[in-house]
Specification:
mainly alpha, 6 helices, 11% strand, elongated
Amino acid sequence: MVTLTQEGIEGNRHMQALVRFGHVMMCVSNADHYLHRMETLKREVTLENVLEIDGLLLAFSVTYGRLFTEAAGEFPRLDRNAVYKTGELRTTHDRIMEIRNKRYAHEGAGRDIEFSMGVELKDSVLTVKPSIAFAIPGHEFPSYRTLIDVLQTYTYEKLHKIIEKASSALGVRIDFPHGPPPAHKVGRD
């Protein structure tokens, strides 16, 4: 019989890896949720919908990107080439990273946002009309779904390898939920 202590479990490097990888699983679940919301949001050209999809795209691209960039602390960084084995998947990954970096995180608006200012002088009154136009890449969502499905499978398999190592190192079976991710149950108020 193996005697385990809380300190022995918390100090075990395999268990620490499991905890760190739990952050990856959380990001994958969050990205999946944001994508699901974008996929199922009613397609109406209203300011409310456009802003909601843009906010979801922001959350999706930044959360997804966090998985593949250097992060503070002990958050694991995934390797694009280890996760995605085809050129098509890597191209989709690169597109999401481009949206993240150019549209939201670093370089400014990028190619998907256009700011303009209309001015009209009439009867000694200058009327200024700001205009913002931006593209929502809804046509790309199916390829994002494929990418997230592959990412979920990859992280699930990697997580269970970590669990096997931790179980072996601790000398006990570790129970962890198995099966597909929970179904989406998102309703509108």
